[in-house]
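Chapter summary example.
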Amino acid sequence: MSHLPRVGTSLTPNYEVITRLAPTLIIGEAGASARKRELEALGPTLLLPWLTLEEIVLSLRELGQRTDTAPKADALAARLHARLGVAPPPNGPRVLLVIGYAPGKLEEIWFIRENSLHGAALHAAGARNAVPQAVTGLPRLSLERLFAVDPDAIFILTQSGPAAGDYLGPWKALGPLRAVREGHIAVIEAPEAYVHGPRILALVDRLAAQVTALGKAP
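The structure predicted for these 218 residues follows.
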């Protein structure tokens, strides 16, 4: 797909490029900040909800109908639902899954919310979310809230780049946290964690390996 023109996102669309392409259908992700009115001025627009597993399954099916690829879309939706549509294990470890954007800084801790595709991946991997409440706003934790949550384990998701130690250092300084005391903190290099598509299934395998390792830790 690298040969396709890049037109931005539903939040930051490149209007000039979109206009030049003269689309017969514009597809994007629905959200409070989506530029729906501006996009509709350029062509028929379909903005689909794309956060929770349920939303993504339904949106995939809708996308298949709109693009004459219903059989493939339905098969993919069924595959995602079968693998990810599971309840959190009642006795699974309480894992705080965080996004490692900036190594060496803990002023803002961005975590994976329960009510998201990635939250479903955590359940499928055999863990519970340390923040089990549904979050509608920005999924951020203060240090004070982090100590109140006190997770059994912390998994830091990264794309690539800085060494694991660059991410782990600031966390290991938080000695009172149970996850730090017990050595249950890990960096997971997982580019697939930064997308909301079928590659999320690869993340399940990476998370499951870390959850299994928790049981073997001293």
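To summarize the output: The chain is about 40% helix and 15% strand.
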